[in-house]
Design goal:
This protein is an alpha/beta fold and about 270 residues long. The chain folds into two domains: about 170 residues, HUPs (Rossmann fold); about 90 residues, Pantoate--beta-alanine Ligase, Chain: A,domain 2 (2-Layer Sandwich), CATH 3.30.1300.10. Helix content is about 40%, strand content about 20%. The chain is built from ten helices and ten strands. Helix 7 crosses helix 8. Bound molecules: adenosine monophosphate.
Length: about 270
Amino acid sequence: MKIFKDKHTLQKEILKTKGISFVPTMGALHKGHISLIKKSKKSRLKTLVSIFVNPKQFQKKRDFRNYPRKTTQDIKLLKKLKINYLYIPTSNDIYGFKPRNKIFLDKSSKKLCGKFRKGHFEGVLNVVNRFIEIIRPKYIYLGKKDYQQLFLIKRHIEKRKIKSRIIECETIRENNGVACSSRNSKLSKNQIKVASNIHNYLRNLKKKIRKNYNLFNTNEIKKDLLNLGANKIDYVENYNIKNFKRIIKSDKNFNLFFAYYIKNIRLIDNI
Ligand code: AMP
């Protein structure tokens, strides 16, 4: 595994290969990331993983500072997985140039997480647009856990006629049902139990509303989540996952999207 910290040295190496399968991450790697990497390795192209905690997608400096960082552990894991390239850029390497493409921000960026994390998706698309320009990947592996992010990156790529193809990857979960997330490492045992109870509650709710959509009552659900130990709920909403539109009656393609806090740890998922 070759490690790069500078885009010019990286480009010298990768632009002569047949193409790159790219797995962008913010590090503190877990089973979700590993599944993306394993899928990428099957592509037969060289796999490049990036680790960059992108300051522009955090609204609060404190959240950015508190984001888990485990670079030494991550490097060990990536060596074991036998990926070809690891790119750990500095902020200046990413933000010290003007990209050719402007970001395209679909209007659905104003919903769900976009409503509660102002500027978050601009920050995500900004960094992804720059990574694409540096790496020119054939494939980009993204997780459905962050479905809104995946949808918006796809829209940007379509709109800007970028040649990279997005490979959508299934959400990997812990045994208790909770989606793997770097932020889970900040949860205590009791808080993990809360997350697991919330997951079970929402999974059952989805089954019920599939049969009878009238049972979907956001205020009641929010109250129940608070009783189960959530400290704040940003949203619980149903969206059609094909067109990413909010639904108001039963629809076979719907997923239940939610974001909530346990103390100051924000968790998101869709089931
Ligand atoms: P992050 O490091 O959180 O920015 O995530 C990097 C990539 O891993 C994104 O495409 C995420 O959607 C994906 N990812 C994060 N958690 C999971 C998970 N539990 N299952 C599958 N993919 C995931």
